[in-house]
Design goal:
single chain; mainly alpha; 2 domains; two-stranded antiparallel ribbon; 2 strands; 57% helix
Length: 150
Amino acid sequence: MVCTKCGSRLNKTDRKCRFCGEEKPCAVEVERIAYDAFSDTFRDYLIPSTLDIVMAWVGLISAPVFLILGLILTEARFIGVFIITAVFSVFSWISAGYPNIIWSLTKIDIFMSSSAINAEPHRLWSFRRKASYWIFYGIAVILFLAGIFN
């Protein structure tokens, strides 16, 4: 069943749409389209998990902390390293906390390369997004430590 307001998939027992909040959505049966095994929950990949939210906050808070500690603990000539560290922490924050932004950018790339307008996220995309924020944050920490210890 699909919500007629937002088009998201619903269970037969749902009394409220999980995505748009429509009370007693006027759901209609749709013909089952041949999706792969993972695409039934494609919207779940666009909702950040608890770990994603925690890592988003870590990335957001660590950017200014890395920058301030870098300025206090080292010489001014290493400021570029700490600016890059803060940038990678911000990338980690965006990648972890806003999967919709990352998916929108991915759809633009898919559309430009193959004209697939109705592309949906899948498990591999979700894994790559999660790996990206760990890599961004790892690079930020390594650069911070390299700048501190010269």
